[in-house]
Known about the structure:
It is built from 13 helices and no strands. It has a single domain, classed as MetI-like fold, CATH 1.10.3720.10. It has helices at 27-37, 39-59, 107-143, 145-160, 163-174, 179-187, 192-205, 209-216, 221-229, 234-257, 269-275, 285-312, 321-342. It is 62% helix and 0% strand. It has 349 residues and is an all-alpha fold.
Amino acid sequence: MTQMLPEPANVDAPAPADERNTVGVSQGRLVLRRFLANKVAVVSGILFLLLAAVSVSAIGLGPIPGWWKYDFTTLNPQNNSGAPTLSVFPFVWGDHPFGQDRIGIDYFAMTMRGIQNSILVMLVISVVGTTVGTVIGALAGYYRGWVDAVLMRITDVFIVIPIIVIGAVVGRATGGLGVVPLAFFLAMISWTTIARLVRAEFLSLREREFVEAARVAGASDARIIFKHILPNAIGVVIVAATLLAASAILLETALSYLQLGVRAPDVSLGLIISDNQSAFSTRPWLFWWPAVFIVLLAVLVNFVGDGLRDAFDPRQKRFSLRRTKEQAASSVTAPASTQARVHPETPSS
């Protein structure tokens, strides 16, 4: 008599390793865990903070003095024809590790001051630009209709004009007022990308059940926008703000290089390159030191932004060759073992 075959068993694939042990974990801890798992982003964040701390502590900030003995305005006697005294093998720091410019100002102090101004511009543009873009995008995405049409047409006007052109006009008018006014006015033209991203997120979230429940409960539009929808879109806002920070560094550098940003006697990395570009063939260190730190700042902020994007959006998985091979091997062996377990040998009647 033929033996009845049992019903095929449902064999569930094991959950990925990065999605286990997440039950009962808050969203903030989950995002932090994903970010800390990205070693490149963590190291970039640490290096950025270390660079900011060195630049502030070296020459001081405002009335607070720093530990470095020279400042970025005092003329000093030329030492070794202005060449850098820094040596790696053997390690020697010297009086002027980054060298001196044509008139004897210490180049290390000038570079640290330029890093300070770049970070300050980055912070102001990120905070102000993100705030303006978030408010405009939230209003456009929530109310839609004529509000959306008006706000998005204003956004389109800023988008179609190259930002370097608008920035040149703004820098020409405000560059002599100082770093903070320059950064503030640059932030007023740097919010367009964030506004579009937040608008798209609000258009999706406003149709969710929790928003309808808040309306039924009698919540005002402001409460729904800032208490219910915005916390669910905060990931998009933070990532966009981080990427805006890297663009802000390059924008300020470009304007200062064109003599339209930070003005003397203050110092900017772009202004240092602009003032010393004629000495590139004879004193290349006057060009390379600020150029290295411009690239370093932009790259570090971009890596941090990529890490935050991956942490807030778990759907964007990084490709792993080892993980792909393991999943392929498990998918090949699992059907064979299931077949042997579900269809055993049947004895002859």
